[in-house]
Structure formats: structure tokens, C-alpha cells
Amino acid sequence: MESEVGSLKLNIVAFCCHYCAYAAADLAGSLRLQYPPSVRVVKLPCTGKLDVLLVLDAFEHGADGVMVAGCMEGDCHYQLGNLNAKRRVRYVSKLLKEIGLEPERVRMYNMSSAMAKQWAEAVTEMDETVRRLGPSPLRKADCAGHT
């Protein structure tokens, strides 16, 4: 599904750790906090499970932006998982730049399960960033091939 505001539709994929970021997103929903509907959440046991190819696959299949949301640094349930994810996000950012895409299309966020407000703020920030950049050129190319 896509979010549409005006004429700009956005697809943002959020890879979230089960214990913290996913719980924060769930709490934000329970509290009925408002944030853009452009994000689609993918729950991971830990952001350390995130593979670079998974992020690149999201872009290849139409994502305009990718959020990776994990536990607070130093508080990962799997010890160093979120630090490994942070390193992978930096690598993907460099890869995006090398292929001509804006590195800001991928971002790492850290939050605890009680940080519902921060989840809503992170989604809003990511939506604003991607909206400013516009749709991914990869999505345009993919859509052109399926007419």
C-alpha cells in the first residue's frame, strides 16, 4: 500500500526489532498517536538479523525509503545486534550514494519499547526526508516496465 498526500505517493519500509522498536510502534498505535501512513513495518527478531541484501531488495521492489529501528545502543537483547545493524545501514547508505541515489533514503533509529512518541517522530522525520527527495528512481523504472 502507499501513502498519498497531494500527488506524491510514498513507500517507506521500517525494519523493526521485536523487543523495542516494534513494541514502540505498537504502543504508538494503542495511544492513537498520529504519524504519516507511508510506513510499512517488518518485524525482525533483532535488527542484527538485517542483511544488506534485504534493504537493497526493499528498494528494488518499490521502497522510496527504508528505516531500521532497533533497541537503544548498549541495550540490545542480542548484545551487539543493533550495532551490527548500524554498521550495515552505513554501508547501504554508501552503496546508495555510489549508484546515484540519495544516502538519506536509509536511516537507523534507536528507541526503547516505551518510546511511542519517538516512534511517531521518527516516522514523521523519515516521511519528510523522503518526501523532500521524491519517489525513488528505482520505483519509477520498475513501474515503467510493468505498463
Tell me about this structure:
By secondary structure, the chain is an alpha/beta fold. It has one domain: Rossmann fold. The chain contains 5 helices and 6 strands. Strands 4-3-5-6 form a 4-stranded parallel sheet, with helices on both faces. It has a two-stranded antiparallel ribbon with strand order 1-2. Strand 1 and strand 2 form a beta hairpin. Helix 1 crosses helix 4. It is globular, with a radius of gyration of 15 Å. The relative contact order is 0.23. The N terminus is likely disordered.
Secondary-structure topology with pairs:
Layout lengths: L2 E3 L2 E3 L1 E6 L3 H10 L8 E6 L7 H9 L4 E6 L10 H18 L7 E5 L5 H18 L3 H8 L3
Parallel strand pairs: 3-4, 3-5, 5-6
Antiparallel strand pairs: 1-2
Helix pairs in contact: 1-4
